Amino acid sequence: GLLETGVEAVTREDGENDVTLLGRAGVIAANLQVGVDLLSLKQLQSNVGVAVKGFELGSQGFLIDDVFAKDLLASNPSLGLVIHPYQNGKDLTLGKCDRYVIDFHGFTQEQAAAFPELYNHVLVNVEPERTSNRESRTASKWWLFRRSGQELRNATAGLHRFIATTRTAKFRIFQFLDSTVHAESKIVVIASEDSFHLSILSSTPHTIFSTRVGGWLGVGNDPTYNHNDCFDPFPFPALEEGPLKAQLRDLGERLDAHRKRQQALHPHLTLTGIYNVLDALRSGAALNAKEKQIHDDGLVTLLRQIHDEIDQAVLEAYGWSDLASSARNEAFEEALLTRLVALNQERAAEEKRGLVRWLRPEYQCPAAAASDPVAEQAEIDLPSAEISGAVRPVPVALPWPDKLPDQVADIRALLPELGPDPAILSARFGRANQKRQDQIAAILETLRGLGL
Known about the structure:
By secondary structure, the protein is an alpha+beta fold. The chain contains 21 helices and 14 strands. It has helices at 66-75, 89-94, 109-112, 116-125, 127-130, 136-140, 150-156, 195-202, 204-213, 227-230, 243-265, 271-283, 289-298, 300-318, 330-352, 361-364, 366-369, 373-377, 404-418, 422-428, 434-449; strands at 2-11, 17-25, 51-53, 63-65, 83-87, 99-102, 161-166, 175-178, 182-183, 187-190, 216-217, 222-223, 384-387, 390-393. Strand 7 and strand 8 form a beta hairpin.
């Protein structure tokens, strides 16, 4: 068909309008787009469960400022079990973290009351508004978040960091957050600590893909990142370990470190401001005085170089180096999207035949990732979980953290599901040996001593 769009209207003397139409011929999809059929995209099982939304608190009363939180932690470090750094989408763009959140997840009301300063804060600032809530769980469990965020807790368990992006933003920017941070629900969490994934997500192929399949929202009509549409169908390159994958990991680390370093040195910098200048550089527009300051403080030309290197390496990873020299215009976008949609169809067909290229096999499908016969024997037989029409096994072989605080956090997160049996908890981490059971037993004893 032919899709014609009005691009200009000029009023004549007789009151009528001369309208200029831009016509495009091709296959017209149901969303009135011509060209690549984005509606044919399939959700890929390989990606399901990795991208989840942040915590839905249900009340701002759970938040405390960082000065109060740090004073409490200095006087009683065990409070780190229930108060965590907190960031929303605006905090991400500003590169700041100046609030903490009280999280009594897994606690009874009596156990929460064992932390009197924090319990009192929630009692004063949350309980009055929550007990009048018509949603029965919200009213009866007023000291807990509106939603438990269990999927997010499961996905990030054992990770030292994860990737985050704001749901609605002018520019699609991904960055690492420390696993201690509680991300708010307007943030999409990609539960991976692999900088290879950060590079792929930060590349032009994913940026174009997510912008075209996502929606638009807000005063600026900014693109939104719905992970069901933008992440789950996106086909990552199937790249074996080697020099190219190592290069992409290094570029991801450089990208994340560069932005964090410059924002720390120059607190006035925001990611939106930095990428506005980057966008101007790419278009060849002249910079005004404010933009020149952002350029110099943000080292934006160096940032552009890192992004260009990521794009070149990602296109090579897909086997599409022929596109690397193409001008970044509409024809380039159509060619790139055509290949990504075709690759999505190919991956969906592979998955029907039983070949799933898991992003995090040790989490999404431990049986496929297990290479340790002892770990395989020690797995717990748990039921599978159905997620958005795709079935994946419940993760049963979490990595055992190196640091004690991370071990304590993981054990606490598993208690509501598995109970306080050291042997069962040990098996959840892939092994049921006596040394691990003794470590877990000591952690449980400490938690009991704290009233947890």
